[in-house]
Amino acid sequence: MTAAEPERVPFEEWDRPQEGWLLSGRCRDGDDRTLLLEVATRTLFPTMLVFSLYLLLVGHYSPGGGFSGGLVAGLAFVLRYTAGGDVGLGAVVTVRPPVLIGSGLTISVLTALVPLALGAPVLSSAKLEVVLPLVGSVSTQTSLLLDVGVYVLIVGVVLDLLRSLGSGIARDMRDAGERF
Q1: What's the average model confidence in pLDDT over 155-163?
Q2: Cβ-contact 153, 71 below 8 angstroms
Q3: Sign of dihedral through CA atoms 103, 109, 114, 115?
């Protein structure tokens, strides 16, 4: 082989990722991978998360909010799990799902009960306005905190379902002697 000829790669190795941006740490077995699904997931995952945040923030003035934003974020994690299994999901989420569930529930309950401590009815909302130096005046409702709690709670529940159901599926496949 001369210097001008490219290095020949065996047929079994030609589609293995060579760049670190595609890998999520540990790589699944090459026979179990779908390269097109992995690349599409790496492209769609951040877009879906940004769209879920958009739904979270816009939900006070039009349909949307914490629940629908949390479901879209949960679907992004389901797509990530479908493409990479528990390996792909573990590279994205470092917080345990029960912590997310507890945090979301705590934020929601505290947001609902704080107006009661201030003499207002439960779940009452107030308008907050903040002046930012470069942006100008930004206004929001205190109910946004309730939606943030619901968002975190829904994402935690979806991740917990993926963790528990996915580990059972992987265990059953290993017990049956199939490749996963």
Answers
A1: 90
A2: no
A3: positive
